[in-house]
């Protein structure tokens, strides 16, 4: 099988066909229509073997994961996902691997009504680049720069499970089968909070998705908003699998600093708290308040059981 045979077999005519796509796979560019009074949200992520995923990851899980982490960026902006371009670099063409990988991609794309409209395939070390696009009503996008003093800090779900899966693999931590399966599921099949992101439009003052760790991603909001935060570490939501598998200190390190959770971290004013909580519950999301925005210049004060708690680790950063 050669490049164009691969494209025709696994992508042309497969998956979602949106009405707003005039020309998809098969030409030099795709042609799409952006609705009137909307802005186009664009995000790009590259995932590299043995950096972002283990080499033995099931290909169906990898297909899901590479798309999910990009949809999470769109969710953090309150955007509706619409179109995706794929850059796929493969060491060789393995039809069985490609069957599973593309099935994983098409499954999550169909769930969120996203059409794969183009991309590129090359030969080399396994690397996958996704450029995801979405639409958001003009002026309604969530950003990192709107947090205000007095706003409350929330997350949409439990943190640390992906870190538990990674560390157990890397360091040989002995977990019981159920806990390991739970953690690995969260790492392989992240669930982007697309509906929650759209529900937060006009309510949240700032938002970001948790990819590099809660503290690291919160720092982005604080710096761009020109504020500080007080965070109650003991309020950070964690799964039973995490709590029952490692010590309290280890679980907090994974939940606060590891990342790969793809929950939303956002801020909301006192006057909007009740409306936000009610709206998110309509989508099955139980948001958890973990702290409050304060005056300052990007610093984070961590408390544990209402006492100051020193915590030196931040989050993942390439080239660090």
TrEMBL record:
E.C. numbers: 2.7.4.16
UniProt name for this protein: Thiamine-monophosphate kinase
Entry binding sites for Mg(2+) 3: 28, 73, 209
InterPro entries: PurM-like_C_dom, PurM-like_C_sf, PurM-like_N, PurM-like_N_sf, ThiL-like
Domain of life according to the entry: Bacteria
Top-level EC class: transferase
SUPFAM superfamilies recorded: PurM C-terminal domain-like, PurM N-terminal domain-like
Domain PurM-like C-terminal residue range list: 148-298
Keyword Metal-binding attributed: yes
Residues that bind Mg(2+) 5: 212
Organism ancestry: Bacteria, Pseudomonadati, Pseudomonadota, Gammaproteobacteria, Alteromonadales
Keywords: ATP-binding, Kinase, Magnesium, Metal-binding, Nucleotide-binding, Thiamine biosynthesis, Transferase
Native source species: Pseudoalteromonas aurantia 208
Family to which the UniProt record says this protein belongs: Belongs to the thiamine-monophosphate kinase family.
Enzymatic reactions: thiamine phosphate + ATP = thiamine diphosphate + ADP
UniProt xrefs under Pfam families: AIRS (PF00586), AIRS_C (PF02769)
Additional remarks: Reaction mechanism of ThiL seems to utilize a direct, inline transfer of the gamma-phosphate of ATP to TMP rather than a phosphorylated enzyme intermediate.
Binding site for substrate: 52, 260, 316
Keyword Cytoplasm annotated: no
PurM-like N-terminal domain segment(s): 26-136
Any one GO molecular-function label of the UniProt entry: kinase activity
Chain residues that bind ATP: 119-120, 144, 211
Positions that bind Mg(2+) 1: 44-45, 120
Membrane-spanning residues: none
């Amino acid at each position: 099988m050669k490049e164009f045979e691969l494209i025709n077999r696994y992508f042309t005519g497969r998956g979602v066909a949106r009405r707003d796509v005039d020309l998809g796979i098969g030409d030099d560019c795709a042609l799409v229509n952006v609705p009137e009074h909307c802005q186009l949200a664009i995000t790009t992520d590259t995932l590299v073997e043995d950096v972002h995923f283990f080499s033995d990851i099931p290909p169906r899980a990898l297909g899901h994961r590479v798309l999910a982490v990009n949809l999470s960026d769109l969710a953090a902006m309150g955007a509706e996902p619409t179109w995706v371009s794929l850059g796929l670099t493969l060491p060789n063409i393995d039809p069985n691997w490609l069957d599973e990988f593309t099935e994983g991609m098409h499954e999550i794309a169909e769930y969120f009504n996203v059409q794969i409209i183009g991309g590129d395939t090359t030969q080399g070390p396994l690397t996958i680049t996704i450029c995801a696009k979405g639409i958001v009503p003009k002026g309604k996008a969530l950003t990192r720069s709107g947090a205000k003093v007095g706003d409350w800090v929330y997350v949409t779900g439990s943190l640390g499970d992906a870190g538990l899966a990674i560390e157990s693999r890397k360091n040989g931590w002995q977990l019981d089968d159920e806990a390991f399966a739970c953690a690995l599921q969260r790492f392989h099949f992240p669930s982007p909070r697309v509906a929650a992101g759209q529900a937060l439009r006009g309510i949240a003052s700032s938002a970001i998705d948790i990819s590099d760790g809660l503290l690291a991603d919160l720092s982005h909001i604080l710096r761009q908003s020109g504020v500080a935060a007080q965070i109650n570490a003991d309020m950070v939501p964690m799964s039973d699998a995490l709590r029952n598998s490692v010590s309290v200190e280890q679980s907090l390190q994974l939940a606060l600093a590891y990342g790969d959770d793809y929950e939303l971290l956002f801020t909301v004013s006192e006057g909007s708290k009740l409306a936000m909580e009610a709206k998110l519950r309509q989508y099955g999301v139980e948001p958890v308040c973990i702290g409050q925005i304060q005056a300052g210049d990007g610093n984070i004060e961590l408390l544990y059981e209402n006492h100051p708690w020193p915590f030196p680790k931040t989050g993942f950063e390439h080239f660090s």
